[in-house]
Amino acid sequence: VTQKQFHLFYQVFRHGDHTPQEFFPTDKHKEIARQQGYGQLTKLGIQQQYELGQYMRRRYSHFLSVVYKQNYHPKCFFLFFLQIYVQSTDCDHTLMSAQANLAGLYPPTRDQIWNPRILWQPIPVHTMPLSQDNLLYLPFSHCPKYKELLRETFATRDFQRQFKHYKQFLKFLATHTGYPLKKLTSERIWKLSDTLQYEDINNYTLPVWATHGVRTKLIKLSELLLQAEFGFHKQIQKSRLQGGILLKTILKHILDARKPSYHQKMVMYSTHAATIAALQMALNVFNGKLPPHSACHFFELYQEKNGQVSASYTANMQYTIEMYYRNNSLREPHPLTLPGCKFRCPLERFTHLVSPILIPYWTREC
Fold it and tell me: Pfam family example for this protein (predicted)?
């Protein structure tokens, strides 16, 4: 009888709803920044992440301990390990998202309750300066080869065929937002879309020009530009320089998890829409849609055993990977299948299929 034993859970999620990171020049609501700050997680964003943490607690209640704690190594009392590792980009809204998520995942119990009116406990979240983040803060722009690939992409017939429908729209945006046309870069388009979405959700009066149709078209343009960043043209080469870097780290953890000495159960990354898009483009499972707030791509590693359970090191083919994408809190996550494999993909096959986008020396290839 084949039995599945859960070994590791790996999640990469987008931050929750946050205040705008910048306001367009003609925006009438710049007082938001004075009142709440730039790029700060909102109450809605906190709730989104808290619910994601609660969902993960329900899903993995059989696997993660109820109590957040350090565990001593079973063979060496002087060594200890943590069940989980959490890393975030160095942005306020991603750091706050990780903390809100952990509040839902690890509410304090019994001896951990330090104040009966505050069911929360501090849990470490690791980060590094954005200028040094070569893992989570995508796209990595400090790569000459990637910049060359982007220039090629924007010149391709396929991209230009779709982009031509937005040229008049960009002039429209420049006229009404106050941005010079040349300043409407991909990043600024994404931020403009985020700003209008925030103001709409939080019941601020939108400009007359920012109709539902305009906001919908802005989202479509954002999605086109996001796909251009990581796909359209020479997608494998781009993935080697972008999402493949993150996938390489994830795969290393997954491969290490087969060893008896590995005791970590969960790795959590608090990131951005572009991070998820880059990862999914590298895996060739991207749906073309902008990942919503608190969207989560996660991996589950299983060891399949026939008959008896063995503690010894076993071959790759006894391990399988399942992938899921949670982009809607009202339904179960979507199962994702790596092209060329079945949903429950043997680890050896998974590793082989993604090997073309894994590079040993990123700086050399850039």
Answer: His_Phos_2
**Angle, helices 212-230/273-283, rounded to nearest 10 degrees:** 50
Of 220, 346, 246, 188, the C-alpha closest to 13 is 246
DSSP 3-48: EEEEEEEEEEEE---B--S---TT-S-THHHHHH-TT-B-HHHHHH
How high is the mean pLDDT of the chain?
91
**Is residue 9 within 8 Å of residue 298, measured between CB atoms?**
yes
- CA 163/CA 171 separation, integer angstroms: 13
Residue 178 backbone class (left: φ over 0; alpha: ψ -120 to 50; beta: rest): left
Amino acid 108: pLDDT? 84
- Supply the pLDDT for residue 110: 79
Strands (E) in the chain, as ranges, are 2-14, 70-73, 76-82, 84-88, 266-271, 296-306, 319-326, 334-336, 345-346
**Closest C-alpha to 278, from 292, 293, 297, 294:** 297
**String of b and e for 193-226 (b: at least 16 CB within 10 Å)?**
bbbbbbbeeeeeebbeebeeebbebbbbbbbbbb
